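Revision sheet: structure tokens.
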Amino acid sequence: MPFLLDFWNNKWLVSLATGLLLGLSFSPFPFPFGLLIIPAFLGLLRLTDLTASAREMAYVSYAAFLTWNIITTYWLMFATVAGGIAAILANSAIMTLPMMVIWHLRHRHLPLWLTSLLVPGVWLTYEFLHFRWDLSWPWLSMGNTFATAPWLVQYISITGMLGITFWIVMCAWLLYRSAPAPALLVVFLVPPAGSLLAYFIHQPEPVDHIEIAIMQPNYDSYLHLSGYPDAITPLEELLGLTDDAITPQTRAVFWPENSIKALIVQEYPGQADRLIHQYVRQWDIPLIAGSSFMRRYDPGTEPPVIRGHYGGKPFNIYNSALGFHPDGSMDFYKKAKLVPLVERFPFVHTFSRMDRFGWIDWSELAMFGRGRDTNMFDVDGYSVPALICYDSVYPDWVRRFVREGAAFLVVITNDGWWGNTSGHIQHYEFARLRAVETGRTVLRSANNGLSGVIHANGDVALKTTYWTFDRFTYSVPVYDRITFYVRFGDWIGWMSLLLSVAALVLIRFSPKNRPR
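Predicted:
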């Protein structure tokens, strides 16, 4: 058809259509919309033939990536307009870099079997490295498109989520290059078929069950102290509601991120600390809750950038999960994966070292301190993490807790900053992939929702309604098996890094295709 042919040969129409397909492949659009990611990447590959240089490839594909970022993560602007716009523009630009390398591979005389490894390797290297710097943004990893269909990707217990991305790009490349039918069938069908088999047949038995209470207080994050006159009033209210929710079988209570409005200061118990411990002693079970936490350091042990001094010691403020125990003790986990520009100024330690003359007050710019330890909480003799919001979209970070003995996973989050958008839906769905990767049950305690429970195979066991007060107890299955991914991490990312190095060498020394 002339119209389709004209469309297929128009680089700008292809780019915009590709961006639309990329956006539609992500939650909140349900499966089978996720399958659109394959024709979407076909569109990106088509641009390698419609552009005359790698630079033009970046220029034209930017329209696709910008469209994708806007459709999928427009809600970033609900938290901060300037920061959201900057994140969308910058992330779209970063995405053009692997496409420039893929453009060169398309225009080199290389065998199909080799490029079928190199092209996925190049894109995967971008995702792998994008997880590992101060401007990281793993939200748009292509593997997340299958979060609503975990039965098709059970193999991520071996590869991690990056394995889905590798499969997507390889499928698109083989289709675009008209690979032989047997090769297409094997690549397209074997991973999903193996996953379906594992989903229906492999059902490990839990070693124990533990009842956990989850609270969803539904505080309004846009109001100072969520509209309460002081920080203690909502605390008293939530403690009373928790007291009504727990049962004699409950072994621990989890509250969401930012659920404690008072600043908790290490070694300086305040009214909030004392009130919480009063209830915890009565319950005889721990309470794990999200709060800002002032961590004080002995002089000489503090990080390079601090917020100030308190009680004669340097301190930092952390977005933290605090564990209050019946014996009066308190332990903590400091959030490790901080949202760039919203929670932490990128590369602040590097810039502070470069500022030899102290012209800039980096303590004012730094925002939250970054945690680095996989601290967990003791729940009835089991180790349990309280991953905070953005932590949960980093597969390699999450699997470290399981490798160190986590019995199940808990995510405490405050998704209310994004309003009633697709952001909180995506965040919930992505947790289904963490369950499959680690072979662990995942619980979510979200300020406004979505709270819930996800089985170890990715199935949803329970999901609350957004922007409502809710609470529930759940008998959580405990597993002790260690998946291949938990044991070895992002091995496929390191493999892709080697493939990308090989791709750059071949681009430098292999002959170009003849002009057609």
